[in-house]
Amino acid sequence: MSFTGIPPAAFDFYRRLHTDNTKSFWTENTAVYDETVRGPLIALAADLEKEFGEAKMFRPYRDVRFSADKSPYKTHQGCFCAFDEAVGWYVQVDAEGVMVAGGFYAGDKERTARYRAAVDAQQSGAALEKLLAKLSRAGFTIGGDQVTTRPRGCPPDHPRLALMRHSTLTASRRHEEEEVATASGLDLIRKDWRALRPLNDWILDHVVSP
Q: Dmax of the chain from CA atoms?
């Protein structure tokens, strides 16, 4: 089955889930979720697989074991296409529309050290600045986890201090539900993922271990 769009009922489903995040609501609306959210995302992933690789959907259930919030269901559905652990392309359906993103979403001490060393180096650091500026001009928002002060050993006048603060790095863009309601949404998401490829390639070259 090819991607034909994400219907308005998908976004309405998540708006209603926001106000009634219960097992009874989910049970009564499982068919809506399957037909308007899960099915279209599976079709989207299949259509993108040849170019980007296999994408997998996250579970719709929250892990509430250590959370004060016991709401059982996530208020969004994400699908991730990884070329390394926690590195790759992402698409998400929620009440506000669709979010498309890329980058690396989890880091350990070694990855963070490699990332900051690459940002610190003039050639690789300037290259990252350039590609992030291009993404920002194209409408992407640069995000990721970061420390509020300076990493240890980083001078206060570092030319890329804002990037040095990051321990993970992402770029994302949101689309209104009307933009992805038909089959043309596939081309929109594919275009965004292609635009994010240079960021993922930089991460692959400088952050992912050999």
A: 57
Residues 54-98: tens digit of each pLDDT: 999 999 999 888 788 889 999 999 999 998 888 999 999 999 999
Q: Distance between CA atoms of 41 and 32, rounded to whole angstroms?
A: 13
* Structural domain contains residue 3: no
Strands 169-175 and 141-143: antiparallel
Residue 2 falls inside a structural domain: no
What is the chain's Cα-based Rg? 19
User: What tens digit of pLDDT does each residue of 106-155 get?
Assistant: 878 899 999 999 999 999 999 999 999 999 999 999 999 999 889 988 99
Please state the domain count of the chain. Answer: 1
State how far the alpha carbon of 16 is from the alpha carbons of 20, 75, 85, 93, 198, in Å. Answer: 6, 10, 33, 14, 37
CATH of the domain at 37: 3.30.930.20
- Give the global pTM: 0.94
**Residue 1: inside a domain, yes or no?**
no
Asked if the structure places residue 62 within a domain, the reply is yes
Distances (CA, A) of 135 to 143, 146, 195: 12, 19, 7
